[in-house]
Amino acid sequence: MAGVTGTLTNTALLHSFKQFTLSKLRQLHQHRKLHFHLNFANFSTTQFNSHKTHSANVDNLIVLGIETSCDDTAAAVVRGNGEILSQVVSTQADLLVQYGGVAPKMAEEAHSRAIDWVTQSALDKANLTAKDLSAVAVTIGPGLSLCLRVGVCKGREIARSFQLPIIGVHHMEAHTLVARLTDRNLQFPFMALLISGGHNLLILAHDLGHYIQLGTTIDDAIGEAYDKTAKWLGLDMRRSGGPAIEDLAREGDPDSIRFKVRFFDFLKHFPSHFCTIDAEIPLSLASSLDRRSRADIAASFQRVAVLHLEERCEGAIEWALKMEPSIKYFVVSGGVASNQYVRARLDQIAKNIGLQLVCPPPSLCTDNGVMVAWTGIEHFQMGRFDPPPPADEPEDTVYDLRPRWPLGEEYAEGKSEARSMRKARMHPSLTSLIQGSAKQLL
Ligand code: KG4
Ligand code: ZN
């Protein structure tokens, strides 16, 4: 992997990097063989240390997680044993209302205004200072570059000032792994559906950092479909469109409106395409309808959209079980997984197939710092982290941000031409990077 420059012994490492206070690392890790990454502006995602951290040491880790990939500025402090010491989220509700969605430049400015107090509040609520931290974890992709940069700058600033190791986190892996914090029985391999504002992802999680992508989004993710529908219906977007539709749908009849959903056309590209919904009622007029009619639209939209997910999940789980018959769990996470109707329907699918559904609590399904800190802990204990940024890191350093960064490799049968055409400027997947560096270690 680019930037990995060689293998150093522990002594050589300390000799070469005397200026680092790596005492925290040395307490936590008995390094024997280290892969070192000398371009400090990059996140290596490499197998940095070939030895795992002992479980007693893992329990003592304290990691700050920072998340700014989209429109939530979030930070949290989590202990290695899974104890959440604090959690702070600042949403951009006013901007969502004003623009009806995320406007990158506005979102960046809002992150910049919030990031200092969000991280400081996370430390204060945990009754800690940055000196007490073992490491900093920060989302480096996928997401909006302008927004990712704000979190990465802050994470590196803290890591540099307090000489802390830093872990670059994949946002969708964080949505997945937070389920292992909330359900400590959840072992690999498992199946996961990740549903957010930017992605629908169906993955087989073989192991930490090793994912097979069974299905992904070509156009709108389901969260975006919820947001657009809420906007069309003129609903209050302050908590984003999803919760607004979920609430209104409770008052409506889910069978009252006929939607034409064209997802069956795409089964051969399974399960890549999120449904295109054609309503018989022109949605441009929807916001002027009375509440009862809008509730019927919300309920019918939700039924059809989730039915689409159900179909896709059933097929993908069938594939996954062929590859890994030992799978017992079906994780559903990401913002849309906080929806009670979605959870109930997918719970039924899991039961029918004989799997157990694992859904993190709603506050850990939507974007948060806990999932980032926890993913940092999982990788840290496997030895995957970067050293503290150098004290003299220039202000204009080009950071390693990965706006388009797949989680895993695509399952051959699920590949579609439409998706292959959208590969431009895509970063190699997390799984291929980790597997590449594991080979280098052999
Ligand atoms: O994971 P997330 O917080 O941010 C992204 O990574 O995108 O997901 C945000 C998405 C938004 O589209 C929002 O409308 C949707 O999750 N969402 C919901 C609910 N809560 C949030 N969708 C349906 N029902 C909900 N209760
Ligand atoms: Zn998310």
Structural commentary:
By secondary structure, this protein is an alpha/beta fold. The protein has 2 domains: 11-183 and 366-406 and 425-441, Nucleotidyltransferase, domain 5 (2-Layer Sandwich), CATH 3.30.420.40; 190-363, ATPase, nucleotide binding domain (Nucleotidyltransferase, domain 5), CATH 3.30.420.40. The chain is built from 15 helices and 15 strands. Strands 14-13-8-9-10-15 form a 6-stranded mixed beta sheet, with helices on both faces. Strands 5-4-3-6-7 form a 5-stranded mixed beta sheet, sandwiched between helices. α5 (104-125) runs parallel beside α6 and α8 runs antiparallel to α10. The longest helix is centred in the C-terminal third of the chain and has 33 residues, at 291-323. The chain is globular, with a radius of gyration of 22 Å. The structure holds 5'-O-[(R)-(carboxyoxy)(hydroxy)phosphoryl]adenosine (KG4) and zinc ion.
